[in-house]
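User: Let's play a game. I give you a shape written as tokens, and you guess the letters that built it. Ready? Here's round one.
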């Protein structure tokens, strides 16, 4: 199959790209991550994706649009459910591009992270696949978690410390109550 892979960051792309290529799929990437905060973090992740794509000869379509205000407008009322909007908006852009450029399927590196909600990602992907006349390629890439970490370190790629949005940054760094 010809698959368009949504890439949230270089580190999370390593294992899925390897697996998909090992299964003889043709893989291209798309970088669309309007949720990442602050802008300097967005740039670091984008630069790392560019470096990774050069190292492994992966064609990546880059969307450098930084739509922080749009992201915040859609999640500020209910931050606890921000991930659903985040999955939908990024996967919908991926599905739109995949349909426009006649890919067979699309998927996401979010399926590599053990911190993401796989059921929600899968449901969103399958609904969008039906809407856009594509397949959503689901695979639990978490099995390669350690392998991806080792590979990213050996490549010297920037390794982020939180999912990306302002809320996940707070979850990562703000001291939690002991209550």
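Assistant: Ready! My guess for every position:
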């Amino acid at each position: 199959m010809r698959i368009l892979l949504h890439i949230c960051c270089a580190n999370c792309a390593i294992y899925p790209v390897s697996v998909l290529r090992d299964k003889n799929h043709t893989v291209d990437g798309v970088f669309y991550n309007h949720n990442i905060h602050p802008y300097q973090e967005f740039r670091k992740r984008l630069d790392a994706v560019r470096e990774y794509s050069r190292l492994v000869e992966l064609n990546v379509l880059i969307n450098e649009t930084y739509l922080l205000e749009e992201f915040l407008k859609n999640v500020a009322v209910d931050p606890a459910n921000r991930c659903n909007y985040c999955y939908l908006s990024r996967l919908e852009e991926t599905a739109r591009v995949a349909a426009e450029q006649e890919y067979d399927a699309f998927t996401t590196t979010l399926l590599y992270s053990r911190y993401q909600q796989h059921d929600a990602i899968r449901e969103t992907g399958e609904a969008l696949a039906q809407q856009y006349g594509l397949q959503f390629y689901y695979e639990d890439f978490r099995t390669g978690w350690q392998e991806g970490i080792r590979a990213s370190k050996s490549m010297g790629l920037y390794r982020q410390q939180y999912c990306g949005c302002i809320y996940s940054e707070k979850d990562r760094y703000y001291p939690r109550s002991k209550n």
